[in-house]
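TICKET: design request
STATUS: open
ATTACHED STRUCTURE:
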């Protein structure tokens, strides 16, 4: 950068900052979403080699849906941004601003090769403030233009030093120039065009040839009147080296894209699929359209695809006059620049080279591209335009009569362009503002209506989004994507009928199946999603699962490499309880993409359905090898390890759950399962901590509340469990196991028989056949000394669960008690007796103490299921055998018998009173 003064650096840096400071407040919009937000290549966990295997958007170059835009060095800078700021848009925009200032400074250095310092500075300032650059500078993906431009200009600057004394060749600058060309090409494809600029410079600037000189020399050689001059041989050698280097780069580039051009549809570039002469007339007309945008950047638009510029279908179209005028003007400048010697012609020639050569890849003249007009591709061509304007201004200002007027005009242009640039930056603040500004310029582009709808859809404003999507279908009735958007929005609004109708319209617009015809060139991959969307909609109806499967198979028949169809079909087949077929679908998808962690995860789920946990765990592990932060794989594999019961797997399960909560710190399920794991390992304090964390994050977390209460119960802290159970039952009053545990604690710890009875009765009110609840109510009756009711209750419980040994055992205890009373001559009062009966029962039990010592049995089983985990409170069934009855004397026995007879008489009297006798 020798020759650029600090003053010039300060001026350019200040102007760039003044024009683009507000770009720092913009977010990620338009193509930024795909290139940055959705691009996994930016993540540090993605291997660096993926950057050199995938396209600009993170899609493998081998896939047909790839855009084939190979810009790994640009993606690398995005990745560096991600390392320092992740997805903080400010630093991404700040780096773009810095890069634009660097481009302006390098451009200043290039201008000084052909113009004086003042004119060069003016050209650089014109370039710095030009509004056409907002897409390249304020749009983050425009960094490809910025980086490519830096290396393109640097390569040219190095090449200009390849001419030594006496016209000798200095190879080091040439080698560096070739290296920088390769780097520029790895930033963006148009970087390779600098080779053409170097060739023009070598022939017409460095060697000073003009067309008449070249023509005269060629004629003399053909006539045999002379030989090729040594200087021309030197030039020819340098050109051969440049061309060979270019050819090598092209070959490598073709190998990278695997000899496949990207697939574009007529919606992306209508002229590309138009017949002759509409195709040629339209492409040629686009040249003056681009020239006008540089000359008059007043109506700027972020998207010029679809119907933005109607096709020029006839030679009688008046727009052909613009094409004619453009080529006449360009031809005049070319003739002037290569036909006449002098500094002015050299400056014009280099300006034309910068305008034309970098624009060739985007011109559609040699191969179709995926757009009609794109303002970002005019970034380098505008350099040549700025040189022309600055050079013209210098010629005018040299005339003393109009010098002041020229300065006024220049100042006005710089000011208005700066203001326009600053205002244009605000359009890029959000997707909504960007696309609404575009609609002010062009209302005939259905894509813009769709994009405004998408912006509103992202804000969950479905009603307004629907209006824009419907308008897109009116602007372009055959736009499959627009009808798909309408259908998706209807679905979000729970209007399934209208959604299905819209999807069917989109489906009807798909090309019909033609045997032997490939669909890649006729159908955009995203349009095939109409089959997926329609199938996903109708499969909500259980009676239409087969119909949904047919749609998936139809999509696969159209494109056997349609990976998403296999994935969606696999999900459906699992729902249809066909895990083996689902396995086949996922294996087919894996053949297409073995590096997709989600596919390995889905296959693991299939193996779980197939009751093959070992194979499922292998696939979970494979998913985590590809993506160590795959949240679902971390979570579910940890659960699978936990459910296996293998203590050796618990440390790894804990490690994965800790990784999961690190990724999802607000997901209570992660902490809950850490708590369950700690309970498995008897780490009670740690389990309590995790359970409380889960409950704090998710109030009313059913499983966490119950298991925390269970933990307290198991660790002899039953009274601490009660408030937890109260909270659980406040959210879930029908939680059966919570009621059982609460009743058990009330009965055994607080001796609150009444409260326990209420819990068990509540269970039976919800489920009369609940064995645990009914059994525990039987125990309550026993505690209440109502043996008849307890016996009846246990008989009913045994009928519900005839194979439960503990119920039979407890029934035997009750019956033994009744028989003991009868053997002692005491009658067991019926259920429902009055207080007098209760008093008599009390007397009978007091008398029985001398003969029997029977302990009651209680049962309270608490179970909680959450994602395959089961915890059971130990059953309490402590029954002691009857002690031997102490032998009594005959007198004692007679006394007891007398008391028994008296009691029986008293009970009979009470019964008669109760019966109304």
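STATUS: resolved
RESOLUTION: sequence designed for all positions
ATTACHED SEQUENCE:
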């Amino acid at each position: 950068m020798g020759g650029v003064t600090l003053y010039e650096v300060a001026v350019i840096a200040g102007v760039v900052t003044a024009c683009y400071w507000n770009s720092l407040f913009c977010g990620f919009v338009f193509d930024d979403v795909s290139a940055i937000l959705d691009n996994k290549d930016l993540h540090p966990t993605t291997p660096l080699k993926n950057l050199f295997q995938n396209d600009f958007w993170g899609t493998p170059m081998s896939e047909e849906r790839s855009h084939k835009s190979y810009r790994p060095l640009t993606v690398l800078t995005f990745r560096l941004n991600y390392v320092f700021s992740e997805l903080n848009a400010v630093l991404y925009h700040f780096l773009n601003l810095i890069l634009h200032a660097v481009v302006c400074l390098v451009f200043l250095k290039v201008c000084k090769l052909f113009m004086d310092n003042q004119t060069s500075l003016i050209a650089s300032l014109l370039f710095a403030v030009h509004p056409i650059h907002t897409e390249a500078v304020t749009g983050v993906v425009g960094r490809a233009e910025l980086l490519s431009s830096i290396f393109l200009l640097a390569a040219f600057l190095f090449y200009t030093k390849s001419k030594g004394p006496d016209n000798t060749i200095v190879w080091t600058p040439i080698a560096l120039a070739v290296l920088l060309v390769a780097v520029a090409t790895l930033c963006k494809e148009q970087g390779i065009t600098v080779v053409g600029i170097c060739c023009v410079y070598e022939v017409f600037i460095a060697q000073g040839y003009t067309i008449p000189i070249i023509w005269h020399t060629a004629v003399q050689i053909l006539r045999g009147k002379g030989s090729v001059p040594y200087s021309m041989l030197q030039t020819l050698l340098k050109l051969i080296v440049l061309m060979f280097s270019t050819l090598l780069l092209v070959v490598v580039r073709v190998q990278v894209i695997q000899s496949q051009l990207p697939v574009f549809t007529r919606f992306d570039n209508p002229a590309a699929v138009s017949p002759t002469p509409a195709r040629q007339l339209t492409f040629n007309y686009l040249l003056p359209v681009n020239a006008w945008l540089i000359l008059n950047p007043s109506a700027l638009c972020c998207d010029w695809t679809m119907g933005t510029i109607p096709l020029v279908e006839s030679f009688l179209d008046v727009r052909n006059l613009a094409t004619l005028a453009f080529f006449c003007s360009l031809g005049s400048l070319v003739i002037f620049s290569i036909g006449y010697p002098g500094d002015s012609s050299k400056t014009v020639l280099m300006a034309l080279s910068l305008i034309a050569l970098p624009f060739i890849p985007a011109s559609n003249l040699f191969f179709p591209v995926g757009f009609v007009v794109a303002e970002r591709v005019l970034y380098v061509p505008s350099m040549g335009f700025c040189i022309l304007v600055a050079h013209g201004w210098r010629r005018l200002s040299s005339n003393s009569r109009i010098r002041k007027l020229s300065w006024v005009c220049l100042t006005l242009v710089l000011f208005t362009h700066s203001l326009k640039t600053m205002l244009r930056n605000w359009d890029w603040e959000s997707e909504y503002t960007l696309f609404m500004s575009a609609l002010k310029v062009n209302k005939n582009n259905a894509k813009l209506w769709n994009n405004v709808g998408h912006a509103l859809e992202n804000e969950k404003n479905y009603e307004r989004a629907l209006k824009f999507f419907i308008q897109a279908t009116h602007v372009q009735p055959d736009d499959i994507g627009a009808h798909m958007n309408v259908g998706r929005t209807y679905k979000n609004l729970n209007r399934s009928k209208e959604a299905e109708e819209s999807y069917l319209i989109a489906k009807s617009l798909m090309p019909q199946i033609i045997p032997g015809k490939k669909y890649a060139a006729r159908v955009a991959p995203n349009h095939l999603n109409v089959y997926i969307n329609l199938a996903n909609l109708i499969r909500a109806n259980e009676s239409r699962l087969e119909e949904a499967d047919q749609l998936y198979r139809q999509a696969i028949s159209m494109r056997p490499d349609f990976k998403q169809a296999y994935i969606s079909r696999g999900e459906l087949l699992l729902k249809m309880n066909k895990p083996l077929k689902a396995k086949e679908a996922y294996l087919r998808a894996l053949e297409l993409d073995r590096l997709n962690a989600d596919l390995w995860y889905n296959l693991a789920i299939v193996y779980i359905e197939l009751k093959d946990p070992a194979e499922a765990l292998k696939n979970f592990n494979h998913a985590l090898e590809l993506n160590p932060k795959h949240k679902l794989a971390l979570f579910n594999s940890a659960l699978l390890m936990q459910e296996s019961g293998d203590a050796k797997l618990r440390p790894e399960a804990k490690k994965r759950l800790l990784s999961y909560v690190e990724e999802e710190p607000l997901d209570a399920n992660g902490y809950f399962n850490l708590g369950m794991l700690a309970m498995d390992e008897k780490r009670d304090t740690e389990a309590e901590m995790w359970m409380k964390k889960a409950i704090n994050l998710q109030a009313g977390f059913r499983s966490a509340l119950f298991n925390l209460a269970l933990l307290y119960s198991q660790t002899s802290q039953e009274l601490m469990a009660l408030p937890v159970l109260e909270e659980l039952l406040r959210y879930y009053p029908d939680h059966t196991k919570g009621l059982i545990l609460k009743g058990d604690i009330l009965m055994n710890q607080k001796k609150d028989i009444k409260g326990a009875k209420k819990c068990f009765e509540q269970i039976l009110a919800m489920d009369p056949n609940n064995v645990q609840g009914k059994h525990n109510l039987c125990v309550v009756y026993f505690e209440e000394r109502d043996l008849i009711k307890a016996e009846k209750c246990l008989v009913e419980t045994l009928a519900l669960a005839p194979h439960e040994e503990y119920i039979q055992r407890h029934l035997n205890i009750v019956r033994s008690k009744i028989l003991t009373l009868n053997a002692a001559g005491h009658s067991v009062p019926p259920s429902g007796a009055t207080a007098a009966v209760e008093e008599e029962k009390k007397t009978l039990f007091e008398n029985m103490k001398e003969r029997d010592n029977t302990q009651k049995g209680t049962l309270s089983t608490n179970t909680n299921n959450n994602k395959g985990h089961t915890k059971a409170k130990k059953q309490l069934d402590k029954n002691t055998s009857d002690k031997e009855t102490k032998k009594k004397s005959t007198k004692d026995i007679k006394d007891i018998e007398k008391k028994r007879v008296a009691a029986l008489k008293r009970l009979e009297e009470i019964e008669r009173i109760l019966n109304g006798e």
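CLOSING REMARK: The mean pLDDT is 84. The CA atoms of residues 144 and 607 lie 44 Å apart.
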